[in-house]
Amino acid sequence: MGKNEITPDEAAKLLPAGAALAWGLGKPPQRGPKREMTIEQIVRTAIEIADKDGLAAVSMNRVASALGFTAMSLYRYIPSKEDLLLLMQDAVSVFPAPTERPAAEWRESMREYVAVNIDVFVKHPWFGDLPVSGVPLGPKTLKFVDWGLRIMRDMPLNEYEKMSFVLLVSGYARSCGMIMRDMHRAIQAGSSEEAFSGLTYTTALQALVKPEAYPNLYPLVQSGAYTGENESENTVGDDFDFGLERILDGIEQYLNRKRNHSADK
């Protein structure tokens, strides 16, 4: 048996308990309530609590109470809160299977990939509060990774380069998703999109930001670019699209350099 040819039980021992459960490798409880709960029910209830009241509201006691059981009963299904969080993360990492585009349309594929990643943070605001504890391990989360790698399947890149680009665009999506999430939270709390972007404060900043103290910021504030005052006149789109396009430009330049290097050999 090769090093990758191990039994499911052996694989389960190599993974955190939450990841093993996400793969369906956990053993069902042998005692306690007559299996009146399922891991799916527990995770779904925890997600509902987090969606409504935030990640801090999720506890084994709160989830158990919502299901009509004791916290001790939950521990017979999921060993710890950390494992529950991992299962929650994996459960919401779902997306409609995208139609594979021609290799030449890789930029549009990347835009779709980033948009779906961002959407998870918007639909589940608590998602960005989960600690990053390591590489993705759950089956649904790994589908995201597989999708990103599929886009680069025919590119002249080695495996390290492909994974690095997936991390690059995923990191950008995470940053954008958390900013959008925070904007929605601010608006729900009584603010406005204009206040969040700074547009409400344009006039005040133009009076306060002086060229002597802020020589580089001053022209941006005066032009309205700092607070997006003239965004409708901006032909490059919004900040998120502009940033993503520059990342894609960088990937394209890297690909062109690799192709030229191969052609010169």
Automatic annotation (TrEMBL):
GO terms for molecular function: DNA-binding transcription factor activity; transcription cis-regulatory region binding. The keyword Transcription applies. It comes from the Bacteria. Keywords: DNA-binding, Transcription, Transcription regulation. Residues 36-96 form the HTH tetR-type domain. GO terms for biological process: negative regulation of DNA-templated transcription. PROSITE patterns: HTH_TETR_2. Residues 59-78 bind DNA. It holds the Pfam family TetR_C_1. Gene3D superfamilies: Homeodomain-like (1.10.10.60), Tetracycline Repressor, domain 2 (1.10.357.10). InterPro entries: Homeodomain-like_sf (IPR009057), HTH-type_TetR-like_transc_reg (IPR050109), HTH_TetR (IPR001647), Repressor_TetR_C (IPR004111), Tet_transcr_reg_TetR-rel_C_sf (IPR036271). This is TetR/AcrR family transcriptional regulator.
